[in-house]
Protein 1
Amino acid sequence: MSGKNKIDSSMMRQLSFLNQSHESSLQGNDLLESADAFAHILVASGDEDELRTVEEMLEKRYFVHCVRSGKELLQSLRQTIPDLMILDEKMPDEEVFALLNQIRSMEGCREVPAILMVQAKRTGTQIFDMEIKGLNAGVSDLILKPFAEEIVFFRVNRILELARLKQDLQREVAYQTVEAERRRQQVERLSVQVIEALVSAIDAKDEYTNGHSIRVAEYAREIAKRYGLPEKTQADIYYMALLHDIGKIGIPDTIIQKTTGLTAEEYKLVLSHPTIGAEILRHISEMPGIDTAARWHHEKYDGTGYPDGLKGEEIPQFVRIIGVADAYDAMSSKRSYRDVLPQDVVRKEIVNGKGTQFDPVFADILIRMIDEDKEYQMREK
């Protein structure tokens, strides 16, 4: 049977089978057989009698397509991917295991299960060797000839069920992976929003530093990007810079907002904000180093900074980046005692601070950013 008549006949059998299934109270194996009624099975053999036997047997429950050579098999696979392949061990034009290797390299065919039809007239050792060779080539099971219909259906059902379970598992894994990433991004967005809200509250303690931490974070991230640091590191630096001044939460508003000179005691208290910030952040284990950014952002490259007098590369790289960004924003923002400094004055101060206050590498990157900023947009608006 072939062509349109074969397809129509096969479909009629499927519809008849499904109607019978719905009319009866299906139990046990009938449920499994019904569930696989629409499976597409591709059978390949050069033996016409064998092919006809398998086709007539299987089309009682499945959509069956038969081919008579390896060439036809490959051509069919290029057009339609079946749910299962059943291959004869002796193909007329190509060795079956070489054929399987070609099939596994074709797009969409790597995971298609395969059953191998082998002659039963062999010793147990020969069948065992054939099974091992088949497993190595990606064969799921063997069917012995001559065929026993019950065994054929049992093995076909079992392979189809395993394939379906595997596909269901892959879909579930893919879904859960996407869902986990969605939740991760949601938590990350929430974390950033909480951090930004906290930072805004801290910066708002002083009308002259409002928005300071966010600008410092943006400048620091851009310096890190231009230096060639990975995106993950750029993001970490951004968050560290956002929180670098969190210690100011422990400084009284009356001192932060004071427009006249500070007393020695008040100045000492202001100088404590890095250690206060580090103490607040040191228990956050998900972002190692976030407390050191708060503690050391006032350290200087020549060792004259505070609170610990670190020098050169003793200061972590990300803190050296944040340090130069912090100083830049301080100069390009309003203060109670002055307006925004002119851009050329800010640039000169960065140049003068290379190797003393600032890491010269990161200072040079910032200087290039200043030179590109023809309209002086990098400043407090």
Note: Residues 3-176 form a domain with the Rossmann fold fold (CATH 3.40.50.2300).
Protein 2
Amino acid sequence: MTELSPSDRATAQAELVSLADLTTPYVLRAAVGLGLPTLAKKGITTIEELAKRSGAPVRTVRSLVAYLTLKGVFVRSSGDNVELSAVGELLTTDQARIMLDPREVGSHLGLALSGLPPAARSGAAGYDAVAGRSFWQALDQDDALAASFDRYMAGWAAQWIPDVLAAYDWSKVARVVDVGGGDGRLLLALLSSYPELRGTLVELERAAKRGRDAFAGKGFADRSNVVVGSFFDPLPAGADLYILAQVIHDWPDDEAIRILRRCADAARPNGRVLLVERLVEPLPSLQHMRADLLMLALFGSGERSRPEFTRLADAAGLHLINTRTIGHDLSLIECVPCP
């Protein structure tokens, strides 16, 4: 590498500072936690009134708003009045609050990322290193956090479920088991779209109850079944298809193989196993790598390539037969049990 000129070095230094700076992420979280974007959308536009309504000191609000104005989140309208920019408007959505409000689940994703340095060295979950418990234990022990996580996952599921329904030939499936399917949103969509389909949701008690209520509320009680249990335990046998949607990337290899083996055992001899996951390509996108590092930080796992999924499938008694890219950077990965 040739030696940089003074001007190029200064440019590189400024870029490095920008990459490493944590100010903006935390200012956004502070502003959302105080409800400043939501208040501004309601027409509360002066610093003094924003401070009064949020319960924060005037000086603090002035600094937060001034910084975010320079970042294009707020727009100075007249005098001491501010309005939201298009980016600022997004901060008033439920998904943004879930991700940025310190009281919501997004704060725990940030906590996990703060544990990325030890996770990068050990390969173990960074969240555990800084929180003293696993992310799953945190959800089990905090009902409000669990509810926030459920809302976050529901918002994400609403984006990718239509892609899954459109990308697979469901007309040939008579019975499907959604393994670890949360509150059953994917299965509910399938039951709604295919009147002859019958489905089973396998989940832990809290999510299973919500799924059961959702199926009954839509009039699908006669075509649905809810089994309370873990995907590490034996699964209901004999279905045409077992779905693991955004499950395997939460687990390191050993646990992932155990889950897949349970599906393989239940699917034999003629069933199939369908994964909905990100497939990391030889030249991965920034979004894929962001997700990969978040999985490392949260769970000590990660997003995987096709060869890696093939290796997991082989170890679990499955044969990977097909992958298909769908929307939202996700893929369908289809497997059949080995003879």
Note: The chain has two domains: 6-94, 160-282+294-337.
Protein 3
Amino acid sequence: MRTYHVAIAGATGAVGTEFLQLLESREFPLASLRLLASERSVGKVLHYRGKPYTVELLDHDSFEGIDIAFFSAGGSRTKEFAPSAVKAGALVVDNSSAYRMDPDVPLVIPEVNPEAILQHKGIIANPNCSTIVMLMAVAPLRKLAPIKRIIASTYQAASGAGAQAMQELLDQTSDVLHERPITPHVFPHPIAFNLFSHNTKIDETGYNEEERKMINESRKILNDPSLKITATCVRVPVLRAHSESVNIEFEAGKRPSIESIRKALTDFPGVVVVDNRETNHFPMPIEATGRDDVLVGRIRYDLSNENAIELFLSGDQILKGAALNGIQIAEKWMHQVLLVN
């Protein structure tokens, strides 16, 4: 079996450490491992298979001899250093938004559009976490009938803003319970016992960046520029795993049966149907946390629209919404390269 020289850029962040754990748990065929980060993290020691690895400085010379570079260091760092990785001969799998909408860079969910992987020119982009969770449910249903419109409302966990945001939720929860004053640092508003519109910039249309990402990325991944899709993204006081309410409208007269929808979702890799009406048990972030699969339930007809259905989803933002999807991209790329060669 061929082995690969791997680097993780942003190795000490929430997604970077998840990359490291997944390389081990999925028995990724490593020849060597290089952990990279900014100046403030240089010298930290992380472990892989019980062996210590010292974090090195991310710079333009970090990628000599590297086959695959997983980037989770933020968009500006990706823009600065990814070209150097590509120049050194590495395949870059990037978790930031830096290249997602670049027409020359594939935007990939391996279960949805794996064919796009071989179109890469050195960089493959990992989609936004909310986009991934939603399209894992949408993709199998597109095979049943053409989709006319998607309406998504998200309930996004603190994990989407990184490890410091997760800690802020824990700290603020303790502060509230002990009747201490709250001073937000990572988020613009209190997150404990509160929710607010996603903390990204609002454009002239009134949509925020997260909502625009879901719209534009979905169209690119599904190769459907005319897809009608809208989103409302909200930050909620959940530690980890995003949830979404999704309304899917099919072309007139072509709405599939509930039975066929349930079967399509059940048969789709990476999706687990959690839909027990008798016990009122449906997807919950507490049950999605730590799981590779996206949980899908509340499968029902939209009573206000004879062509639409309703779903509720939960998926681990750090796993399938980020690091796991990136690892799967690399695994699929390795498999495709073997087939081509």
Note: Helices lie at 14-25, 75-87, 129-142, 163-177, 209-221, 258-267, 285-288, 319-340.
